[in-house]
Amino acid sequence: MVKKIGSIFFLSFLISFQAQEKTDDLETIEIQGKIISTPYKSANQNITIITRKEIINSPAKSIDEILQQIPGMDIRRRGANGVQSDIGFRGSSFEQVLLLLNGIRMNDSQTGHNSMNVPVDLEDVERIEVIKGPAARRFGQNAYAGAINIITRVNPGKRVKISAEGGDYESYGLGINAQIGNDKFSQSLQANSNSSQGYMYNTDYEIRNVFYQGKLNIKDGNIHFQAGFSEKKFGANGFYSSPAAKDQYEETQASIVSMAYQQTFGKLRLNSNMYWRRGQDMYEYVRNKPEIYRNMHIGNNIGGEVNSSYTWRLGITGIGVELRKEFLASNNLGDRERFVSQVFFEHHFSLLDKKLTISPGISWANYSNEGNFFYPGLDVGYHFNSHHKVYGNIAKVHRVPTFTDLYYSSKTEQGNVNLVPEDAVYTEIGYQYQNKNLLAKVSGFLRNSDNAIDWTKHSLEDPIWYAQNVGKIETKGIEIEWNHQLIHWLKYSLGYTYLDNSFKQSGEFVSRYVLDNLKHQFIAKLETRFLNHFTNELVYRYNDRLNLGSYNLLDEKISFKQKDFTFYVLVNNLTNTHYTEAFGVMMPQRWFHIGFSYTININ
Known about the structure:
The chain is mainly β. The chain has one domain: TonB-dependent receptor, beta-barrel domain (Maltoporin, Chain A), CATH 2.40.170.20. Helix content is 6%, strand content 59%. The protein has a 22-stranded antiparallel barrel. The protein has a five-stranded mixed β-sheet with strand order 3-8-9-6-7. A hairpin with a 2-residue loop joins β28 and β29. It is globular and about 65 Å long.
């Protein structure tokens, strides 16, 4: 495997300088920070952008599936097509990644299992910004190992797009996306429904999303409103508890309502928002028999923030304040709440004729139940010219336990009210080369965690998982990415990540999450266009996980597009691989999908 990977990289290097055509233009994209937005090319962090074009051509059915195509990301799915997934970055747990929707926090204070309950379909996504590495000083809690910002699209014009699909296991999907507006005020409404009878016993699902957004352009700014609702109902065969629990069932809901305001006044830029997120989670140990065991959790997060940045002769200075109240009502976890106050400060300046850029920053957070935390950090970058740059960053991060970590109790899990917040120092250095045809990156990173939180057993025979501070963990690794438009009809990308997790405390235990990371990960994509109207994309993934072994996956999508009509055939797991990504849950084998969409333009 290593020899094959090395050969591919060497071949790519030899042919890269023959490129003639332009790739997707990333130079015009600004990474949407909380207080300071940064052009992608100037960012001194490892950032990946998934563009609209990549989303359209990808053989992915949901947001979590397209995130699997990013090196360093570890998406541990239970089921398919976005049913339930845990997001990890470079060996992190799913609680250590922050998910944003147009800059609005979507994480659930109950548990990170619900973070991917996002009320948007891939059809409504303009791009996805993935910040690898610590982002707590910019975004706060959960941005421990990285942050993901899903940016939706609302464009001028009047059009209605309808879509439908069908596939194996009696799966189907129906969707509608309507846009209306002009350069002053634009609106969009998206609704979709997907269901399947399941690829094995008790893996059926129903997923429904409704999402509205409006954008009002004002002088040197805009006002953005969004409201969405997501509902998932699914059989959870072996998802939790133990693989023998084949009759589990779950229903989740997520709602978001927010309003954001952005405006520039000369050298001063203001950015503020208010939001409300509601989450509901109903779990039955035996489906349709709530009298045996049933959990119901309802959580509400209400918050707002005001951020500003000012450009002056010594650079750009930003400051922000966020206030948030988290509520939870649960028959298992009890009635819980906490109030969170955060203050953010960041300064960006450059030296040596703007070749050297430096961004120090710090944030302070107060949790009403856990106390005060400081998140300092520093990003440094040196641009040799418009194509070559090196960068480095270092930051300290914390994560407070979720309500599940603290209070959950069942026959197979026991929370721990004595847990203390976990913290880490995260460092990374990297090199990036970018021109119109090629983007190449290589980086090395180190994360030293203390008081890491995990669910553990004393032995495999122990029936109960306990939430514990398991001690010190050193995570180190390297990451390589290569994205290349070879000629106008051929584009490919390669990515490799190596991880080494070292536990620094004596005593043996069985880890449920923290020490179950990917050790080797290789991703390759090949996109071809032919006969004017056809696009074909192949995605290959090799994952080698510490405790679950290795497996190879191949996904394929061929699309036909002419004017307002699109038709596609998509095949997941083309090679019919037997594999599991989380907790021993068997994933689907080969799964065919066929679908179409048609856009009606209204004059």
